[in-house]
Amino acid sequence: MNKTRHGISLLLLLSSTCFFSRICYGGDTITSTNFIKDPATIISNTSVFKLGFFTPSNSTHRYVGIWFEKISPQTVMWVANRDTPLNNTSGIFTISNDGNLVVLDSTNTILWSSNISSSSSSAANNTIAQILDTGNLVLKDTSSGVIKWESFEHPTDKFLPSMKLITDKRTNEHVGFTSWNSPSDPSTGNFSFLLDVRNIPEAVILNGGKTYWRSGPWNGQSFIGIPEMYSVYLSGYNLAIQDQIYTLSLATNIGAQEILYLFLSSQGNFEQRNWDDEKKQWNTSWVSHKTECDFYGTCGAFGICNAKTSPVCSCLTGFKPKQEKEWNQGNWRSGCVRKTTLKCEKQLNNNTDAKEDEFLKLGMVKVPFFAEWSFASLSIDDCRRECLRNCSCSSYAFENDICIHWMDDLIDTEQFESVGADLYLRIASADLPTNSGRNNKRIIIAIVIPVTFVIFIIAIFLTMWKRKINKHEKKLNMTSSVKKKILKQSIVDDDMIEGEIKLEELPLYDFEKVAIATNYFDLNSKLGQGGFGPVYKGKLLNGQEIAVKRLSRASKQGYEEFINEVRVISKLQHRNLVRLLGCCIEGEEKMLIYEYMPNLSLDAWIFGSSKPKILDWRKRFNIVDGIARGLLYLHRDSRLKIIHRDLKVSNILLDKDLNPKISDFGMARIFGGDVVQANTVRVVGTYGYMSPEYAMQGQFSEKSDVFSFGVLLLEIISGRRNTELYLHESSISLLGFAWKLWTEDNLIPLIEPTIYEPCYQLEILRCIHVGLLCVQEFINDRPNVSTIISMLNSEIVDLPSPKEPGFVGRPHETDTESSQKKLDQCSTNNVTLSAVIAR
Q: Which of 77, 496, 653, 839 is the most buried (most CB within 10 A)?
């Protein structure tokens, strides 16, 4: 009944007053008679913030929100009716009869309310709402000045400097914020940000109630898991505790002229953004998720994550992978288990002979989650003894005179370079590095002496046997030896080569046999043409089909590629790499002999033909997965770390079952030791697939191949070349087009229509997401190949939001690039080569 009376009175009021704009809005306040009717607004005292109705991009709904007045594009800080939008511009924002702020639609239905209780019948007359220069909307009693409600205590997805993050430990009530559902939908999303105070207070991001990210515990000055808090732009935070109420705030030492806010994205990424007044844009100065280690529990129980190592996960000292096979494949979630049972556990089984457990110091780490702490002024020795008394205590730390214990599994430990806490890990005495080293030394001594004696006897026997057969072997292999000597000398003389090929592993073919196999290099046998020379199909006398890559006598570029490819691929063997059968060297003739791929190269199947209908999504996904696994072998699992440097669709061959094989290693480089990145003055590759740092600076690494893989993945999904121009879609490349669709949250137009099926939509969209992560402009943002495989196969469920790709702008076509396009158009098989010289 009260709502009906309120509705009638409000409609009468509107009919008599809303023709006068001065009554519908004004100043920085709202009253029951001075309200906002869409599209009117009010502005804070010094014009910092504006309050009114707005429509998000790519949406038709209307919401009441607060945004910066002088910053464009519109940046919304708070939304009132986020889950109950208006469908037209008839909305009203006012104070109701009971003193609440309300959003009404054209039928006078309350879509949102501040929902405070009031016993006064004249509450509306004594209440005003005011937008402050801090961005806070306050509802207060005019007679007493008491604030009855404020938007800062009901945030949406953003945190302004004057706000406070509050958790009441007694009631478990939080003042936190939740993400939008998408960039165009302010409704409550899956991610929330709050203070977790169950044990040591720390900030966490939850995804549907499950931990997604954590800051590490508060040490009195900063959060241990955020090294950047030691820098200037994240200083000034304070965590106050009073009557079990925890309040995180940003102190007032932030510059008065500095405009910043913290933001929880719809993808679960927590960011700090600062306004650049010169460039008129927001800059992201910090993000929560920069590496794999930032995702909660990446390495599982008793694993430790280090973003600077490869792979990023390893087991803590004294522990081993729980699932060895999964761990070696890059799926670390199952974590690690102890190698040796602790003494306290053995005592439970009446074994009293075990040595006392020890503690191993791990320096500069983000300590694990779910610790128990004590405010008692224990010494570090007391802290150690207390942990030792409890068999469930797996580690301890001593920070700022606070003793901290962890019980049972250690989850989400991360290694830092220069900051962090000291964690003391409990391990069995036998697993201490010093003990294991001493035991290993004894074992080695016990083994080495008898083994050395046996080797000495065998060596004498082999020497005598080799002398007898040496003369006979020289006669039989004279021709082969001469050829190998030529090849070996070529390799030694070439400046590009480091080390020698194991020539005994590489068969040599006679020129006459190769010529007969290819019908004397008949044009009808020709498969393709690259910078090195032509490729022919052949058939040996034993019936084996081969592909012959013949070096052009006039091509210095082909000669370098020939030597490099022999050096690299002769050492590799994997089901997703093309197999080098041997080579032919006679006079000026130099040829490489490969296994023949009956289905030729992938580009013939996905670009401009009727074959896309044959290559459905399942086949394409298998091809993508196979390419990724071949690349993982090159980067991690082979005897040498290989950077391919020319990964593209035309260098992916398909066997009779459409299984992919990576080919053309003429530009590949071998990394030795701990090298992770190298520079070159000669940039070689194919336009459209080269990463920004390689094309512009000559820097190449695993992440250069990852960028190429991302382009290749998007091409396979879309059936379009990256170098095509999409003028009708306001984009200039496939990467630009994909990024435009991503920002519009509309990726379906990117998918090749012949492969789209609703049942595969989520899997295809996930692959597009992975592709965009691979082509991000900056090296450190791109995932490594083992992570890519886990992402593709949904072993990593929650993916980070991609940043803008490199090379989304229109290129200036050079002669080199033009010739490359012509070369690509005439290439139909496995081996092409192009060079782009860095400017």
A: 653
Preceding omega of 201 cis (within 30 degrees of 0): no
How many whole angstroms separate alpha carbon 282 and alpha carbon 259? 9
Q: 10-residue block means of pLDDT along the chain (839 residues)?
A: 44 41 62 93 95 95 96 95 96 94 95 84 81 96 91 96 92 93 94 91 93 89 80 64 87 61 93 91 90 93 93 95 91 94 73 77 91 68 89 88 87 89 92 62 66 74 63 43 46 38 63 88 81 83 88 58 70 83 80 88 76 79 95 83 87 91 80 52 68 83 93 93 61 84 91 88 94 93 94 89 77 38 36 32
What is the three-class DSSP state of 146? Answer: coil
Say what the pTM is: 0.54
Asked whether the beta carbons of 427 and 393 are under 8 A apart, the reply is no
| Catalytically annotated residues | 646
d(C-alpha 654, C-alpha 744), whole Å: 35
Q: Is the dihedral of CA 497, 503, 506, 508 positive or negative?
A: positive
- What is the distance between the terminal CA atoms of the chain, rounded to a whole angstrom? 77
d(CA 136, CA 163): 8
In angstroms, the CA 163 to CA 140 distance is 18
For 198-335, list the strands marked E by DSSP. 202-207, 210-214, 237-242, 245-250, 260-264, 270-276, 281-287, 303-305, 313-315, 319-321
CATH number of 477-596: 3.30.200.20
Instruction: Assign domain 599-839 to a CATH class.
Output: mainly alpha
The ranges assigned to domains in the chain are 2-153, 181-290, 294-431, 436-476, 477-596, 599-839
Q: Which H or E run contains 366?
A: strand 358-366
